[in-house]
Amino acid sequence: MKSLWNDQAAAAYSGDLGLRVYTSRLLGQDKSLVMHGGGNTSVKLTETNILGEPEDLLYVKGSGWDLDSIEAPGFAPVRMRHLLGLAKLETLSDSQMANELKANMTRASAPAPSVEAILHAILLSKFVDHTHADAIISVTNTANGRERVQEIYGASVVVIPYVMPGFKLARLCARIYPAEARPETVGMILMNHGIFTFGATARESYERMIELVTLAENYLTRLGAWTIVVPNIPPLDPAKPLRGDLAALRQALSEVAGFPVIMASHSDSQALGFARRRDVNEISQKGPATPDHVIRTKRVPLLGRDLQGYKKAYEAYFNQYSPQSRQPLTMLDPAPRVILDPEFGLITIGQTAKDAAISEDIYRHTMDIILRAVALGGWQALPAKDIFDVEYWELEQAKLQKAGKPPVFAGEIALVTGAASGIGKACADSMLARGAAVVGLDINPKIETLYKRPDFLGIRCDVTDEGAIATALENASRSFGGLDMLVLNAGIFPSSRRIESLSLAEWQAVMHVNLDANLAMMNAAYPLLKLAPRRGRVAVIGSKNVPAPGPGAAAYSASKAALNQLARVAALEWGADGIRVNIVHPNAVFDTGLWTEELLKTRAEHYKMTVEEYKRNNVLKVPVTSHDVGEMAAEMCGPLFAKTTAAQVPLDGGNERVI
Q1: Are 181 and 158 in contact (CB under 8 A)?
Q2: Residue 608 counted as domain residue
């Protein structure tokens, strides 16, 4: 491991708090040190309060911030005097501790301080860093981990046996560290938890972290336990579709969880190699790499697909340890967050795509940590009781009670055709805003880079190609687990042509895109929609030309009318499966690529109107936007339309011909 400190980059950060931000980000950008929300850092400063009195403060990482992107407002300033006083108490409940930390901040808008704030305070160095370094965990999580740590570090670290994070850990460190620290001590190893380093400057504390973790890496390398040999496993046969099996598994997972879930599958060599190990039944069932990972991954992954067996085992785990709690506990959902399957590889689950991605990142590191510990002589995790105590921590239970309702489409997947721009993009945006994971299809390659976020998958796809549709649905299912909502938007609007001038080729080209492609998409999507946990939904983007066609638009009007009939028949046929199909008929949506300023001006002059008057040329005198259509399509897939199918809703501000 190399120090990333750069004098020129550091110069851009002013003061001790600025340098604290800088080195925190250096730690956070190395995922072998810190993962999602993990780790914490601090700096001790003296500031003058509003009364003109100097106060010693601990600026400690606040809850909800990631080290790789933290900024100065992400640190919570807490009065050192109070923290040191708390460290002397014999007992302090987690809720009392959280209250005391929050009540003794000097900035009301700051985030809640890290639960390790008291521990940071008792380590009297100005700067303190804490990470869950992979190399350290690989060493400590072995049968003779403590002896190995002492062999690596000697007196340069103090070793702390595992105890619950928070006040108990701070009290234990307050007792052990002063008694065992030596002049050469520059760090502290927490068994089965992580590492602390400290120093007089941000650079010193940071580089001590790098130095100590490097010693662990070198030790593992020397014993042949650092480099993981990934087996060369050929990729899964792309000709063998998995989407049906994946969607069925997701449906069953959602039933066990009690809510729809996103399910991401990973069949690379690392994932398949670990899932197919002969000893996977043993090494994967001992527990997580560190206790806090249980929040994201559960204590153990599911092996194979026996969800009911996993559910019963989780319920037994809860029933065994919950009676030992001092307060009543509410059982979390019993669905796994990680599945190891010899056919699928690694599957990660979450209520959002981000949650599933975090579970993936954590478990990929866990696999490496386990294999390194195995190479050292044997992987050993904490007892189940210790993991349970973190999973059902008083503070975590309080978070659940305060959590609001999730977004309406949380855990669900929407596919939108023609999603690169205009109405299709607006539909995708409306789905994303309601918490859905969105698959956007478009023939425009722009779709692949439209958004860089875990809940959006852009796929370049010609929807007139049945093979391309099948591939897109396969990719969607492997990325998110299936399909809940389908928005049929892709279409073309040809140049105006009277019937006597309309060639059969032009007619067929329009029908091929506006009608045939939608039939092919519905045909391919149906098996997935049928397995949607909350039942499938289809929103069809129709046109005012269905109830009120216009001259010169025979092919377009006929194709949209035929699509309308197709949707109505689908509503009749798919209703038995709980799939609802509804249609929105927009008109005069001028904020799309089709309508240039020049064209708008020409059309407005034709009607002897200003451009603004032309945009509002309807009964209500209101503009109709792509966003309006996107919102309607999303609402048609939501609870407001739960008991409606085959509805045709005009979205045109009131068109006299339609009325």
Answers
A1: yes
A2: yes
Do residues 392 and 474 share a domain?
A: no
- What's the pLDDT score for residue 470? 96
Active site residue 556: yes
Q: What is the CATH number of the domain that holds 341?
A: 3.40.225
Are residue 315 and residue 453 in the same domain, yes or no?
A: no
Domain residue limits at 143: 7-222
Amino acid at 362: I
Q: Which is nearest to 397 in space by CA: 479, 295, 506, 262?
A: 295
In a domain, 118, yes or no: yes
Catalytic residue, chosen from 219, 314, 526, 556, is 556
Whole-number Å distance between alpha carbons of 568 and 582: 8
Sequence letter at residue 307? L
Low-confidence ranges of the chain (pLDDT < 50): none
Residues 6 or more apart in contact with residue 565 via CB below 8 angstroms: none
The token pair at 613 is: 């008057």
Spatial neighbors of 267 by CB under 8 A, at least 6 apart, are 235, 236, 344, 345, 346, 478
Where would I find the H helices in 223-268?
Answer: 243-257
Q: Which residues pair with 265 in a beta bridge?
A: 347
Q: Strand order of the sheet with strand 262-266? A: 262-266, 345-350, 338-341, 302-303
283-286 long-range contacts (CB < 8 A, ≥24 apart) are 283/370, 283/374, 283/379, 284/340, 284/370, 286/379, 286/380, 286/381
Written as one letter, the residue type at 171 is: R
Same domain assignment for residues 503 and 634 = yes
Using CA atoms of 618, 620, 626, 628 in order, give the dihedral in degrees to the nearest 10.
-150
Indicate whether 478 belongs to any domain.
yes
Report DSSP letters for 102-129, one per residue.
HHTBS-TTSPPBPTTHHHHHHS-SSEEE
Distance CA(20)–CA(16), nearest Å, equals 6
What is the pLDDT at residue 4?
A: 96
pLDDT for residue 494: 87
The count of residues in the chain is 659
State pLDDT tens for residues 144-176: 999 999 999 999 999 999 999 999 999 999 999
User: What pTM was estimated for this model as a whole?
Assistant: 0.93
Q: Are residues 67 and 216 in the same domain?
A: yes
CATH number of the domain residue 439 falls in: 3.40.50.720
- Count of structural domains within the chain: 4
Residues 205 and 260 in one domain: no
Looking at the structure, tell me whether residues 208 and 311 fall in a common domain. Answer: no
- Give the single-character DSSP code of 541: E
Shared domain check, 418 and 527: yes
Q: Same domain, yes or no, for 335 and 475? A: no
What angle do the packed helices 202-222 and 353-376 form, to 10 degrees? 50
Classify residue 236: in a domain, yes or no.
Answer: no
Phi, psi of 537 (to 5 degrees): -140, 145
